[in-house]
Amino acid sequence: MTDTKNWWASKTVWGGLVALCGGLASLFGLEIDGSLNDNLVSALIEAAGAIGAVVAIFGRFDARATLR
């Protein structure tokens, strides 16, 4: 594997975070079924992509150097 990406672009990381949250929720008495878990992963991935786009656009406007 030679390609790299940001941690927030990894479905494995988001899946792990949702699984962690699901485990913690279960510990406190809230049950999350498999389909809800899948939907949460998809929603978080989409949100991460949208946030990444906003940060990229803001970063370009806030940049101090010009593009060639």
**Number of separate domains:** 1
What is the helical fraction, as a range of percent?
55-70%
Low-confidence stretches: none
User: What class do helices, strands and sheet pairing give?
Assistant: mainly alpha
Overall shape: it is: elongated
Give me the count of strands.
0
Radius of gyration over alpha carbons? 17 Å
Distance between the termini: 31 Å
Structure description:
The structure is a single chain. The chain has helices at residues 11-27, 34-62. 68% of the residues lie in helices and 0% in strands. The protein starts with 10 loop residues before the first helix and ends in a 6-residue tail after the last helix. The chain has one domain (10-62). The chain is elongated. By secondary structure, the protein is mainly alpha-helical. It is built from two helices and no strands. The chain crosses the membrane at residues 12-30, 42-61. This is Holin. Keywords: Membrane, Transmembrane, Transmembrane helix. It comes from Aureimonas pseudogalii.
